[in-house]
Specification:
The chain is an alpha/beta fold and about 190 residues long. About 30% of the residues lie in helices and about 30% in strands. The chain has an eight-stranded mixed sheet, sandwiched between helices. A two-stranded antiparallel ribbon has the order 2-8. The model has no long low-confidence stretch (mean pLDDT about 95).
């Protein structure tokens, strides 16, 4: 069975966006990109909610072509362009996008099938609303939470209305020079 791994930035008080839906408070740098890049090399499938997919699609396909492309831009753009992409959306259709499959019905069953198919890890980038659904369905195996040194007070929480307990085991933690701390938890079944 393939692992489904969540990568998510949060504030110290657990929000993924501020009260206006913005994420401009998230700290990222080359050190963090290198760290995250090690994980993406372990994955051959990426899952996105519609909004996150549209953000990714607007940048990553051509990021390596920019004159001042960074090492991360080159590597992640190459990965993004060859990885299998799954978009969970009730408003998009397969005919609307290239190089991606849209799941709009029976989300939990479709993700279970994906996890049972041959392949490497599956990464869910951002997409907090989708993360809520997949967490509730016990479909996420690992949580990589990048805790940013800020208190937002309001916003969209990482965990929302969870109806059951999920036990976790801390596998690692990494503190970056920016003050961001990455906590890697594995679900304990």
């Amino acid at each position: 069975m393939r692992k489904l791994v969540l990568f998510m930035h949060t504030s110290l008080d657990g929000f993924t966006t501020d009260s206006e839906g913005k994420m401009d408070w998230i700290k990222v740098d080359e050190e963090m990109f290198e760290y995250a890049g090690q994980r993406t090399r372990e994955a051959d499938t990426a899952i996105y909610g519609r909004g996150t997919y549209q953000i990714m699609e607007s940048y990553w396909p051509t990021a390596a072509d920019k004159p001042n492309a960074t090492k991360h831009d080159l590597e992640h753009s190459a990965w993004y362009n060859h990885v299998q992409k799954i978009v969970v959306s009730t408003t998009m259709k397969d005919t609307d996008i290239k190089n991606a499959k849209v799941i709009s019905k029976n989300i939990a069953a479709e993700i279970r099938k994906l996890k049972e198919a041959p392949g490497k890890e599956i990464i869910l980038f951002g997409s907090p609303t989708l993360a809520h659904t997949l967490t509730e369905e016990n479909l996420i195996d690992d949580y990589w939470v990048f805790v940013n040194p800020i208190l937002l007070g309001k916003g969209l929480p990482l965990f929302n209305n969870l109806n059951h307990t999920i036990n976790l085991k801390l596998l690692s933690n990494n503190t970056f020079a920016s003050g961001v701390v990455c906590l890697h938890y594995e679900v304990v079944y």
